[in-house]
């Protein structure tokens, strides 16, 4: 239960049935739930008093709206993993895409300071520059291709080329620090955290919003069930169910994303071989690909 102290501070005092308030100067919000959907610096999380596990990636996510050189049936999201971090173009319309470019913080500040024309040049170079490939990686991926061919598992899909960018929409450039963050608790009495207030991930997997949508779906279903069965909307059991269910899903997803970030932060040949083969296999094995997509969709 959240209570307001005489000084105006909000404090969390436990579930109502566990700890009835003895204070005389409080106003109590009975039969309601406070949903903390206030993002990475959540004040609701602070008031809940939950521990927050966090580390920085030393990168910023540079975002912008960009106009493609040629209008296409723009429905493919592109991501290129560069030695400096991933650069992604996410379709908005046939002509516009949303840029998410993860890059070390100094370079992000430099890119923010460029003129629009110079920024577009730097972006096109990031999208198109050819890097020398390690011969061991080439040999390993070619051999796996041959094996997949002989097992008739190689995808027949034609590989499309990434788009080029013609210009950037005025005043659409901004950069945000990237970090991992997880609240050890999502719920208290009459209070629940959702979205980035509860968890924060690197954008390389495009999963931040999905995790939040999953929280909302789970919470609304559990609350509806509890109200239909005659319980108070702030009852403990649906909130604890929400926390258990979402932490089980979110923590595994977050650790996988953090692992991917680390996997793609190195150019050591054995790691590059492993991640290239992993990507090739995932692409070839439709059930594995579907399982990953299904997990990401809830
Ligand atoms: C650079 C970058 C790129 C990203 N790219 C992707 C991507 O491609 N795909 C993806 O799925 N996710 C992406 N994400 C993550 C995604 O943006 C977040 O996961 C998502 O926005 C979280 O939504 P939210 O509603 O929980 O929090 P937010 O979007 O942060 O919304 C919180 C809201 O609460 C408001 N607020 C805060 N405090 C108060 C207060 N005291 N009173 C009133 N209002 C308050 C804020 O103003 C804000 O509007 C990216 C994140 C970054 C930083």
UniProtKB/TrEMBL annotation:
NCBIfam families: Ubi-OHases. This is FAD-binding domain-containing protein. Residues 10-22 have a biased composition (Polar residues). GO terms for molecular function: FAD binding; monooxygenase activity; oxidoreductase activity, acting on paired donors, with incorporation or reduction of molecular oxygen. It comes from Timema genevievae (Walking stick). The lineage of its organism: Eukaryota, Metazoa, Ecdysozoa, Arthropoda, Hexapoda. Residues 159-249 form the FAD-binding domain. Pfam families: FAD_binding_3. Belongs to the UbiH/COQ6 family. It comes from the Eukaryota. Its cofactor is FAD. One of its GO terms (cellular component) is mitochondrion.
């Amino acid at each position: 239960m959240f209570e307001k102290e005489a000084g105006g501070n909000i404090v969390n005092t436990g579930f109502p049935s566990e700890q009835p308030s003895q204070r005389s100067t409080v106003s109590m919000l009975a039969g309601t739930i406070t949903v903390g959907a206030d993002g990475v610096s959540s004040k609701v999380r602070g008031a809940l008093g939950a521990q927050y596990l966090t580390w920085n990636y030393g990168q910023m996510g540079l975002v912008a709206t960009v106009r493609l050189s040629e209008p296409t049936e723009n429905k493919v999201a592109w991501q290129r993993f560069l030695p400096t971090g991933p650069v992604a173009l996410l379709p908005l319309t046939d002509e516009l895409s949303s840029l998410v470019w993860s890059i070390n913080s100094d370079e992000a500040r430099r890119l923010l300071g460029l003129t629009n024309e110079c920024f577009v040049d730097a972006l096109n170079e990031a999208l198109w520059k050819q890097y020398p490939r390690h011969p061991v990686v080439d040999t390993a991926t070619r051999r796996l291709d041959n094996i997949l061919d002989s097992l008739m598992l190689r995808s027949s899909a034609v590989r499309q080329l990434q788009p080029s960018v013609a210009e950037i929409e005025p005043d659409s450039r901004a950069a945000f620090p990237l970090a991992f963050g997880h609240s050890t608790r999502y719920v208290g009495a009459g209070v629940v955290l959702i979205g980035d207030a509860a968890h924060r991930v690197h954008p390389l997997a495009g999963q931040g919003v999905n995790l939040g949508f999953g929280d909302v779906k789970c919470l609304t279903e559990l609350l509806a069930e509890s109200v239909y069965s005659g319980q108070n909307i702030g009852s403990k059991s649906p909130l604890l169910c929400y926390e258990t269910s979402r932490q089980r899903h979110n923590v595994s997803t977050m650790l996988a994303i953090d692992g991917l970030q680390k996997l793609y932060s190195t150019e050591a040949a054995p790691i590059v071989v492993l991640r290239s083969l992993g990507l090739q296999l995932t692409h070839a094995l439709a059930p594995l690909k579907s399982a990953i997509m299904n997990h990401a969709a809830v």
